[in-house]
């Protein structure tokens, strides 16, 4: 890996584009090997993530934000466009709108892959815009695979090197850069074109984290889809010869100087050198449960503690000792009263670790729909237990969260349950069971099981098997076969559901 230093440069101090981070990102992406030369484990994981994305997208087809995004996309039909989840196989829409609709479907349940380091990310959000552009441009499965591997490589590098959340900047700014790089690698664009696209994408998708604060709305699902759509449009403009705000990262009024640590800041972003195998996708991990990633280990911990604790009616308090991030973002350290509100939105509840721990402790598990149902959130016994749960930051768990070695990094915590008689039950868990370092890491069988479970009753058995066979042949797929990466569903039922939505401008 090659370390690239990123600091602010005044305009009078001309920084050659070859020394700018956006160029380095574009250069690393356009040097990505041909699909047949990619690391086999990385290629298999890319197929796993296509399966994962399809599973959660299909499960979310009738959720309102997904239906709205789909309706908007269907207003932009074109014969040479891209497919949309839940729509008839022959229907095509403009690729940026396919990226929008499919990106929203993938993100809605907060149930696909994650990578956590200096910042946060869901690298699987790169796949919908790449797949849309691949269909629009007639690319093969091997081309798509190359693009996915490149996008993950860039995304992980940025998340490792540059913290956004400390400045309350949303993590989709890293996503849009990675997507532009992935598209560039997939289309074999020159480094200069990708460089301009990266800068346009970052400039137009820098937003605050208010989308994940307080009363969290449906925009949480739309935000990464917007970044993917913006990246597609940025690549299109760059291919037509248009420039961008430059240097977008290092400029004296740029990203680092005005959004992050300021004029004296310095960051290190490590990128693969020429010929170095791209394996960053293997550092990322998916979710077994539909909840914010720091809650994954907490759910597994609650399942264990449920067996030890016995009846929960006489709990005096539950304290979860955990990392700074878990405490401040999804815990009581956020200061958000909405995290204790039974009438809160689903998006708010999946970012409330006190709620999640209460339900998992009572139920011994988690369901992507039932665990968020209004009647479940409003159950009196749950509400009583919920308000007795708090989080505290433990410096040791914060240190473990930022551990340099991915195999030793921890995203869990220690739960202490105190009963009214003074007795205490406690336990701890470092990572979720499904994490690569967990008790039962997800493998192809795990992804397949998740797909079958989430699409049961929506995708027929034969259609499930056909999709899985197609995903397994990703590197061998011809351009026309990419349509089969969208599982067939009852499109009439989906259309009937969508017809009840209010109309917009399109």
Automatic annotation (TrEMBL):
Q: Which organism is it from?
A: Streptomyces goshikiensis
Q: Which Gene3D superfamilies match?
A: 2-methylcitrate dehydratase PrpD
Q: Give start and end of each MmgE/PrpD N-terminal domain.
A: 31-266
Where are the stretches annotated Disordered? 325-345
The signal peptide annotation in the UniProt record is: none
Q: What is this protein called?
A: MmgE/PrpD family protein
In the record, the note on similarity to other proteins reads:
Belongs to the PrpD family.
Which intervals hold domain MmgE/PrpD C-terminal?
289-467
